[in-house]
Specification:
There is one protein chain. Strands 1-4 form a two-stranded parallel ribbon. It contains six helices and four strands. The longest helix is centred in the N-terminal third of the chain and has 9 residues.
Length: 110
């Protein structure tokens, strides 16, 4: 995730974003200062967000960081929740070759 954070900081746009990191062990780190900008969402918190059907607006977030492993499982609750948030949204896919192939769970989720 840090490369995307670096790029957003480089173009002066990082301050426009309020992130949600779906991975419990995920970190958004400024690669120049080594400052942790955002920690991952603990599993209990993420499960409550999904169970309650909370929206990004309710969470006061406007960007989601997730790895393919978070959404690649068949019948993935995280993929379902993320899809419910994606109406009228942009999806930026890093390492898109990982999601290549029309029959993989990852490609179906993306």
């Amino acid at each position: 995730f840090s490369d995307l954070v670096r790029d957003l900081r480089d173009v002066g746009e990082w301050s426009s974003f309020r992130p949600l990191v779906m991975n419990a062990d995920g970190l958004l780190v400024d690669v120049f200062t080594n400052e942790t900008l955002q920690k991952g969402t603990p599993p209990k918190v993420m499960n409550k967000i999904m169970a309650d059907g909370m929206t990004l607006d309710q969470l006061q977030c406007n960007i989601v960081f997730a790895t393919y492993s978070q959404i690649s499982g068949e019948d993935s609750p995280k993929a379902d929740w993320l899809l419910s948030q994606a109406d009228s949204s942009f999806v930026v896919v890093d390492e898109a070759h990982v999601a290549a192939g029309s029959s993989s769970n990852t490609s179906l989720a993306v």
